[in-house]
Amino acid sequence: MALQNTKIVYVIGHRNPDTDSVCSAIGYSYFKNITDKRFLFTPARTGRTNEETRFVLERFGVPAPIVMESLAATVSDLSIKKPVAIHERESIQALSLLMRESGIRSLPVVDDSGRVTGIVGLKDIARHYMDSVGFSDLREAPISVDILISTLGGRVISNSQKKEHLAGNVLTASMQKGTILNRVRSGDVIIIGDQYDIQLDLIRAGCSALIVTDSLPVSSDVIAAAEHYGTLLISSPHHSFATVQIMTLSEPVASIMSSNISSVGLLTPIAELKKKILESEYRSAVVADSDNRLIGFITRTDLLQPVRKMTILVDHNEVSQAVDNIEEAEILEIIDHHRVGDISTVAPIYVYNDPIGSTCTVVAGMMFLHQINIPAELAGVLLSGVLSDTLLLTLSTTTERDRLTAVRLAEVAGVSLEKYGKELLHASINIQNKTAAELIGADFKEFLISGKKLGVSQMMVLDCEEIDWIEQKLLDELEHIRVANGYDLTVLLITNPLLASYERVLIKGEAWIVEKAFTVKVENSACILPRVMSRKKDFIPALGQALSLGK
Question: How high is the pLDDT of residue 197?
Fold first, then answer.
């Protein structure tokens, strides 16, 4: 995490993730964490995993990638340093020294539990200093005796009643004896020199505290009287004027802080953070957790450089299939096996796009090339991606490399290729108790070709009669998706892997595209294609060619 000074790179597949997408993200993250120590590579996904993928992850005991619904930069992507903060009971003088030493203009205020209670800045100190002209009353903001002693650098001579705070009017005994005695009231705080007789009279008059300046000696009689009457007796090393000034700086930070805090969390988008900072009187924002405990403090200078999440895309390279806000992210690499899409980058990046059956084959090949030891559970995950995306090595996209990779991974994973393939097939084909929306959405991809917006889903069944019962619901859902999202064409490819001789296709929208691409007739929103279709190698390229020729 950025807080730990380690940049995260999210390795993420396409929307509606299938097994190859999820497993290649897991595998490539493992590969990069071994070969590239600059970052922490974390597998991610956008959307829920399907039943097949959940079976694979549970079968091999591998945790699912984290969910990322957006790649928009958040507060967590900033390099947040340990914040400088001050306790609300600390003195204004301590605050001033801290700000001068740290070279900062504002900082958060916290309580005993580390929760944020306010914010304070240089202007608050300046305002307090201006307001303290004529300083004479502590009733609204009593001063802690401990803080006062620390601020003055003084000492307590007597405190028989163990007073913790000073309150009342503050008077300086700079006038004649009669004048000061007429003015003093019970509970007042008096700043005085070495006027022995006046000191005794003030104690007897009921003042709550005497502060003797210039470290002047105090007689034993005065000390005894202070003990008897419960008067707080303090020695200050400063002259009267400086003592008064320092007393004003002994007030607690809580007395001058603002409670109008601009607060954000780690997941707050950077765009929202910028807005809060611009609107803040202090041009800053506090980063706090759900319990309002302080995490960080961000100012305008922290946003001078652009902040973007870093990502590696696997198993896709098209904006329409990518996680939200992909355009705001910094794409470092693309690892894929599909057609070249429309994602563009500002700087040159590493792209590995290999026309083979599975992205997991690409990832496994890199590990073989670098002679990286593949754990058995990771080999099982990669094998699952290969078998899933090639329909157990039967689709037309399957290459000899896919077959050799599958054999090698099965050996490392300690499974029988044929037996495990059947387990995977049965885990992936289960249409019972699922809605038409769930069946179509499980493996749905969007394509933009020749100005046409296409939505193509693919599903497998073991019993073709199961589809007969729900065909109309599937067609209704295809039409709903088409209208709701502005697609020109929505298609569902239905494959029975046990009868791999044809493809059943349900169609809504501009059916002429499919008719022209495969020289078939679409009737009642359906048709049969003479062989099993690979969406990326057979179906989409054929549609693209038909569209390039025009209607």
Answer: 85
With left for phi above 0 and alpha for psi between -120 and 50, is residue 265 left, alpha or beta? beta
Q: Angle at the Cα of 222 (from 218 to 225), degrees rounded to 5? A: 155
The reported pLDDT for the residue numbered 132 is 67
- CATH architecture of the domain with residue range 142-250: 3-Layer(aba) Sandwich (3.40)
Residue 335 to residue 355: CA distance in whole angstroms: 11
* CA-CA-CA-CA torsion sign (150, 152, 158, 159): negative
429 alpha-carbon distance from chain centroid: 36
**How far is it, in rounded angstroms, from Cα 297 to Cα 84?**
8
Q: Three-state secondary structure along 379-409?
A: HHHHHHHHHHHCCCCCCCCCCHHHHHHHHHH
- Helix and strand element counts for the chain (H, E): 18, 24
Q: Which of 492, 434, 508, 496 is nearest to 458 (CA)?
A: 492
Helix locations, 205-304, DSSP H? 220-229, 240-248, 270-279
Report domain 2-73+309-428's class.
alpha beta
Nearest to 233 by CA among 181, 192, 291: 192
Q: What is the CATH number of domain 86-128+254-303?
A: 3.10.580.10
CATH 3.90.1640.10 residue ranges in the chain?
2-73+309-428
The pLDDT of residue 58 is 97
Q: Which residue has the tokens 């299938």?
A: 18
How far is the CA of 291 from the CAs of 228, 451, 546, in angstroms?
48, 50, 59
CATH superfamily of 436-549: DHHA2 domain (3.10.310.20)
Task: Please answer whether residues 493 and 505 qualify as being in contact, where contact means their C-beta atoms are separated by less than 8 angstroms.
Answer: yes
pLDDT tens across 526-545, in order? 999 877 667 777 899 999 99
Q: Which amino acid is at 281?
A: E
Rounded Cα–Cα distance for residues 236 and 378 (Å) = 72
Segment 474-488, tens digit of pLDDT: 999 999 999 999 999
Q: Are 326 and 72 in contact (CB under 8 A)?
A: no
Token pair of 513 as six digits? 């595209």
**CA-wise closest residue to 451 among 486, 492, 491, 482:** 486
Enter the tokens of residue 416.
């029988």
Query: Which segments of the chain belong to CATH 3.40.1390.20?
Result: 142-250
Positions of CATH 3.10.580.10 in the chain: 86-128+254-303
Query: Which residues, 6 or more positions from 120, have their beta carbon under 8 angstroms from its beta carbon?
Result: 86, 95, 106, 107, 109, 253, 256, 257, 258
Q: What pLDDT, on the 0 to 100 scale, is given for residue 2? A: 44
Residue limits of CATH 3.10.310.20 in the chain: 436-549
Higher local confidence (pLDDT), 251 or 272:
272
Contact indicator for 354, 362 with CB cutoff of 8 Å? yes
Query: Which residues are within 8 A (CB) of 293 and not within 5 positions of it... i.e. 6 or more apart?
Result: 113, 114, 115, 116
Gap between the Cα atoms of 551 and 547, Å rounded: 7
